[in-house]
Amino acid sequence: MDKPKNSVFQDPKLRGYIVSALRRIWSWSPERSRAINRAKVGRNAYQCELCKCIKRSLKSMNCDHRVPVGPSPYSRLDKKGRTWDDYMNALFCSADNLQVICKECHKDKTTLDVRAMRE
Fold it and tell me: The whole model's pTM is what?
């Protein structure tokens, strides 16, 4: 499906609202819950899938996509010309593409992903 040339989704402010809403909905995804349960090693204890450290709070963990979701359609970083369907399919993936990692590992992985995306 081709992107419409003068779409309202090209407005950066509206695109930001849409991406934010989709991310919020994704946080309730059953696949995300499945990945979090996979990382659980005890009562209120979760193991990072990268560094294997154990954290006592889910707040110190992030559920991350193994294959990055990437930028939203129409953003200046979108070099592939993806559609909103492509974006949502990447965001709402199966639990196999999700990993629960500590915030430190997530920061490092995100830095590498963004660097690779910009190249």
Answer: 0.84
